[in-house]
Amino acid sequence: MALFAPVRSETTDLDAVRRYAVRVIAQSEAEDLQMKAVTLALLGGIMWRAAPGSTEMMQDAGGAKAILSTTLGGRHLTFAYNQNTESIEMREGTTDGPVLHRFCNRTLIGDFERTFSALWG
Known about the structure:
Oligomer: single chain
Helix content: 25-40%
Order of helices and strands: EHHEEEEEH
Shape: globular
Distance between the termini: 33 Å
Radius of gyration: 13 Å
């Protein structure tokens, strides 16, 4: 049984990314975090490297947690904001998969490019 279900209102990858950005930025602003630039850089990397048609936004049953699911370099990845670590976690497979990378307000710009280039290569 799936814990997260796709939000069916998006029609393109860009719609899914836009909805995810709005949710994460709104959530982090309520906690006084500086996640706008991090979220935008991360989503730029996803749009740059994701397989066309593979990106969708999902949410938990209560609608509280937004998850972005996509395929990068043939690998299925999920991205979700973690309030405990104050970061967006990139996980292999599902939201229970291993954390591959955490993106937060301390992430350097070059880390985004290196992370997404490694996934593509």
